[in-house]
Amino acid sequence: MTSSPNDIPPRLFDRSLLRVRQNRARRLGPATFLLDRVAEDMAERQQAVLREFSEGVDIGTSGDQVRDALTGGVSHMRAVALPISESEPLALAPGAIDLAVSALALQYVNDLPGVMAQIRRALKPDGLFLAAMIGGETLTELRQSFAAAEAEIEGGVSPRVSPFADLRDLGALLQRAGFALPVTDVDRIVVRYDNAFALMQDLRRMGATNILNERRRTPSRRATFLKMAQIYAERFSDSDGRIRATFDIVWLSGWAPHESQQKPLKPGSAKMSLADAVNKARDKK
Predict the structure, then answer these.
(1) How many other β-carbons are positioned within 10 Å of the β-carbon of residue 120?
(2) CA angle 152, 157, 159 (to 5 degrees)
(3) For labelling, which of 20, 105, 142, 239 has a CA lying 20 to 30 Å from the CA of 209?
């Protein structure tokens, strides 16, 4: 079957620039509070499965926090990089692992359905995929403040904050990739800063500044940044003057199909209709 141009995912992110930004973050001294929290939560979620894993991979996570946190529940854990180019496959053999995790990396993948499909193929039957990624309403305050400032100062708006997937989209992607028992949920974290420039400094130290291919290529005016900070303070500050920044951590989990897993009932196989169940409940009152 030949593919059409519509099958090619849009190249939203400059992944070469992402690596440059991540290297700069390491030189500055990385801000890891989000990753630290995710690593702790991931260990709790993995332990809740009540199962030992023999062969695990950590896909694309920047840092050792996740692998360090999971050492108690996995016999062998290694890191696998996300390729800069989507034409390069993940370094994973089919059916080679029983646990795949990723922390705060998949939001910058251009072909997320393709990466999820590769992870699914790499899992043994009944293997687990567990990931956390930035999504939802993350940095909505910064997005709105920049848009208002640019519209006023520069007469137009350029993309500043990456578009983020929501729970519904990510749940559908898990199903599309062939995962069984897909689950998604979100952990909303609100961080407070003295001002917008302190937030932007943290984003640089996370390696999380603008890598959109459609970003503005010329320097923004100083007046635009000052106006952005003013609008941010006016719209999104608390009574003590500090501003709020939203980070939504979207959690994904799914299993490689296996005959032992629970399966939904086939349509028409229920032994009691909904109406009968309701009537039976009424009779008990």
Answers:
(1) 22
(2) 145
(3) 239
What burial class does residue 173 get, using C-beta atoms within 10 Å of its C-beta: 0-12 exposed, 13-18 middle, 19+ buried?
buried
The answer to whether 119 and 256 have CB atoms below 8 angstroms apart is no
Give rounded-to-5 percent helix, strand, coil for the chain. 40, 20, 40
**Run means of pLDDT, 10 residues per run, the chain, 285 residues:** 52 87 92 96 93 95 93 90 87 96 94 95 97 95 94 81 83 95 96 97 91 74 95 97 97 93 57 50 51
The third-level CATH classification (topology) of the domain covering 5-141+162-196+246-284 is: Rossmann fold (3.40.50)
3-class DSSP assignment, residue 53: strand
Which residues are paired to 102 by β-bridges?
131
Token pair in block for residue 151: 């519209």
Local structure of residue 6 (DSSP, 8 states): G
pLDDT in tens, 6-30: 556 678 888 888 899 999 999 999 9
Q: Are residues 234 and 115 in contact, defined by beta-carbon separation less than 8 angstroms? A: no
Q: Are 124 and 153 within 8 A, CB to CB?
A: no
Sheet arrangement for strand 74-80: 74-80, 53-59, 97-103, 123-135, 243-255, 180-193
Q: Can you point out the beta strands (E) in the chain?
A: 53-59, 74-80, 97-103, 123-135, 180-193, 243-255
Residues 184, 263: Cα–Cα separation, whole Å: 18
Give the DSSP letter of residue 173: H
Q: Write the CB contacts of 214 (distance below 8 Å, at least 6 apart in sequence).
A: 12, 158, 159
pTM of the model: 0.84
